[in-house]
Design goal:
It contains 13 helices and 18 strands. By secondary structure, it is of the alpha+beta class.
Length: 483
């Protein structure tokens, strides 16, 4: 949409933001009006181009093809210009026929700060002729009120509840029309059913909705401070009401005329099942995090026992084996520690590897030779399934570089990572003595190759560097994350 505006129009950034707010909230109008909405932007060559469109979920669409980017039909341009000039809603006198059905067209000026910046075409599919129901009449009247607000520059509201929170009420979920005092003028059958499940047993038409709902709220339930404003239709906000195990999501849209509040349109949706599932997920997430925390504690206990046993051992070979096992267990513990702090089973691997690298630094400090560690690039976010084997592999590679390549003279170990989408490439480079054939049959190398082949399904290679040292290249395709 922004690209189309830049190419075809000459309006201010504030006007562009107004159009974005309008498009973000006009699905309600489309559903209430049983009509397609097309946003037409005047061009510099005295024409109109479609920069956005919206199809109703309550009726048949007029445009089966996407018309964004196309120019207005010649026969409709005069009506669009008239709406821009007069700042009045203009209706085409006769229905336009397209094949087997007719279309009723209206042009609604989009006004901001007293200026018309665009025009909305409201196009209604005129199907089989019949008498509209009371529900449909109230839908259309509500749409007419909101369209009038657009033409007066009073819609959209900058603070409207247009977010994407799960369970946001839609037109078909339930509609309530309020007067300026917050009294119910009309409630759709779905809205009445929702209120009945909440505990409303009496007739609500003609009564203040706030006075009807407030006694039903249990003292133990938290109350959103915005609830009275929503129930009275005084603010374009959203709130949740809970009582007796039933949760309703309500959204209010005040109806104003030249700044005076005339009433409100209230959308209602029963979200009891949705909120129940959300609470279950929160409970499960907390349980999973607690499990990771306990696993981390247990692994750290095992690592401490191995460290204690290594210190008490008099055999150099046994001491080295226990130190290696302790290091691997501690590496896995760092991954579980990171997972215990997240809810989506995805970790920031740069942080995890930073902790694991300290274990290799301990090995270097114990060896006595000065070793410098350098990190280049970034790993990014990694799933739990990949984080553990990747951490163990890299810790083993860095430790091998320290123990076998830099044990005598010291040097630098560089870990360079690059990522393109899910493909991760890591290079572990040292400037030591080069590839040691005797070290290639060690337990650490066997662990690395086994994890790369069977868990990460990647590839790894060792090569000598010109001028001395070793370069290990690991490449794998990480698991897909659920964003």
């Amino acid at each position: 949409m922004s690209d189309l505006i830049d190419r075809n129009g000459a309006i201010s950034p504030a006007d562009v933001e107004w159009l974005h707010l309008l498009v973000g909230d006009w699905q309600v109008i489309s559903d209430l009006a049983f009509a397609d909405l097309v946003l037409w932007l005047p061009t510099q060559d005295d024409d109109f181009v479609a920069i956005a469109q919206c199809r109703p979920s309550t009726a048949a669409t007029v445009h089966h093809e996407d018309i964004v980017g196309s120019h207005a039909p010649r026969g409709f341009v005069a009506t669009l210009r008239e709406a821009m000039t007069t700042q009045q809603i203009c209706r085409v006198g006769e229905a336009r026929w397209t094949g087997a059905y007719a279309i009723r067209e209206e042009a609604i000026p989009v006004v901001r700060a007293g200026r018309t910046i665009a025009v909305i075409a409201r196009e209604t599919h005129l199907g089989a002729s019949r008498t509209p129901s009371r529900l449909e009449i109230n839908y259309v009247e509500s749409a007419d009120e909101l369209c009038g607000m657009i033409a007066r520059g009073e819609f959209p509201a900058a603070n409207a509840a247009t977010g994407r929170r799960r369970g946001a009420p839609r037109v078909g979920d339930g509609l309530v029309r309020l007067n300026s005092e917050g009294e119910v003028l009309y409630a759709s059958p779905n809205a009445l059913s929702a209120f009945h499940r909440l505990g409303v047993s009496d007739e609500i038409v003609g009564r203040s909705l706030a006075e009807v709902i407030t006694p039903l709220i249990e003292d133990s339930n938290p109350v959103d401070e915005s609830m009275p404003l929503v129930l009275m239709g005084r603010a374009a906000w959203r709130t949740d009401i809970e009582s007796r195990g039933v949760s309703l999501s309500l959204r209010a849209q005040p109806v104003t005329e030249h700044g005076t509040r005339m009433g409100a349109v209230l959308l209602v949706r029963d979200v009891s099942e949705l909120r129940r599932r959300e609470r279950e997920l929160m409970t499960k997430d907390a349980t999973i995090r607690e499990i990771h925390h306990r696993v981390k504690n247990n692994l750290q206990t095992v690592a401490a026992l191995l460290r204690l046993q290594a210190r008490r051992s008099t055999s150099t070979e046994v001491k080295e084996a226990l130190d290696g096992a302790m290091r691997r267990v501690a590496t896995i513990a760092t991954v579980h520690e990171a997972l215990s702090q997240t809810i989506d089973e995805v970790v920031d691997f740069d942080d995890v590897f930073g902790r694991a690298l300290r274990l290799a630094a301990d090995v270097a400090a114990f060896g006595g030779a000065p070793v410098t560690f350098v990190r280049e690039g970034a790993f990014g976010r990694v799933t739990a399934a990949d984080a553990t084997p990747l951490a163990v592999i890299l810790t083993e590679l860095v430790t091998n570089a320290v123990e076998h390549g830099l044990a005598r003279q010291g040097g630098t170990v560089t870990v360079a990572s690059s990522r393109e989408g899910r493909t991760l490439t890591v290079k572990v480079i040292d400037d030591g003595v080069g590839v040691d054939p005797s070290a290639m049959d060690g337990l650490g190398t066997q662990i690395v190759t086994t994890l790369v082949d069977t868990v990460l399904d990647g590839s790894i290679s060792w090569a000598s560097r010109t001028g001395g040292g070793t370069e290990v290249t690991l490449q794998t395709r990480l698991a897909e994350m659920n964003e």
